[in-house]
Amino acid sequence: MKKQFMEGLLTKNPVLVQLLGLCSTMAISTSLFNGIGMGVSVTIILICSNVLISALRKVIPSNIRIAAYIVIIAGFVTMVDLLIQAFLPDLAESLGVFIPLIVVNCIVLGRAEAFASKNGVGASALDGLFQGIGYTVALVIICIVRELLGNGTFGGGLLNGGEGIQIIPADFGAKILTMPFGGFLVLGLLIAASQWLVKRMEKKEKEGNK
Amino acid sequence: MSNLKHILRLSITLLLITAFIAAALAGVNAITEDRIATIQADKTQDAISDVLTFKGEAVLLENTPEKVNGVTITAVYETSAGYAVQVEPAGFGGGINMMVGVDFEGKVTGISIISHAETAGLGAVAAADTGAGEAFRGQFVGQSGQLSVTKDGGTIDAISSSTITSRAVTEGVNAAIACASRLKGGQ
Asked: Whole-angstrom Cα distance, residue B73 to residue B83?
């Protein structure tokens, strides 16, 4: 279980290592509120779809598995979308079309194909949870960096009545970072940092074994 | 025969999964439908009272979207103080859904941006509840006729680095003014 957790968080992180679901990651990671909202939505959908697909893995014939997965994923995404629209209208407005687009987010289909279709319900639920946490953590870090350096604020959409706390004067913000290509710059640096961390941990482990 | 069985098995499995998901969706939709409709209606009403100070109710005049000069006019409401025109000009990141209040003299009473997909920190300033956003929207109040941004020889100061958004909002206001004067002329 610990291994699964580390895989989701670092060594097989969906964003930083598998590079899945980058489209929505780049588009919405501009404020903390968006990052948490999107991360939690994807996590819930991942857990639900992993559990159902795992439970049905012996029933679904392999010829039509992709069609069956997409129907299941689309169902859960639409449910989450409707619930967010009804109960969290601010989040719905801010994430816009990217919630429905989770249907085609490769993280969810990727985990269904790579994990849930081969493993038991319990393990699949944990996989969904940990992959979701890994996605959320990566997303939140990108959000914090882009928001702070781009707009000079922290906690946009959440703190200080939605304005966020102004840390750097807005005029000094590097607006480039709030745009998608700025997101790629931040993502690249974050991947480098996570690789460095993984290498360092491996090295320590080797030294510990000696 | 076994081939037929195989095909039947595939289609029936998929049918059952789809039927199950459809039933679950119907359930969630039943719970959320009313709430979503209320939220949408509230948003529209809020936007109308944002742009016009009026007594009584805002009456829906038209709600068949029509496109005039690249700007979609989504709905028109009439109140005791003037018209509230919901327009959707094309911004930098897609349509900007906004409400424009125009009094019976053809002067803009206020504008409110309901939803948009402009760049955060740049075009999104137009809709923000910040000093810069209010200053930008405030420029339209009391204006009439055909407006344009300073870059195009007009009087509206564009949001810095967001000429496309500023132009779009200005076009939306122009369409609303034109629409209101057309309605008034028709009376």
From this structure: 13
Q: What is the pLDDT of residues A43-57, one digit of tens each?
A: 999 999 999 999 999
Question: How many folded domains does chain A comprise?
Answer: 1
- Say whether the ipTM exceeds 0.90: no
Question: Which of these, B67, B80, B166, B151, lies nearest to B116 by C-alpha position?
Answer: B166
Mutate which of A57, A98, A160, A175 to test chain B, going by most B C-beta atoms within 10 A?
A: A175
For residue A64, give every residue at least 6 positions away whose Cβ sits within 8 Å of its Cβ, in sequence order, or none: B10, B13, B14
- Rounded to whole angstroms, the Cα distance separating A172 from A166 reads 11
> Is A75–B24 a contact, with Cβ atoms under 8 angstroms apart?
yes
Determine the residue type at A128: G
Kindly state the average pLDDT of the residues B33-54: 85
Q: Do A86 and B31 touch, CB atoms closer than 8 A?
A: yes
Chain A residues within an 8 Å CB radius of B37: none
For helices A65-87 and B2-51, angle between their N-to-C axes, nearest 10 degrees: 20
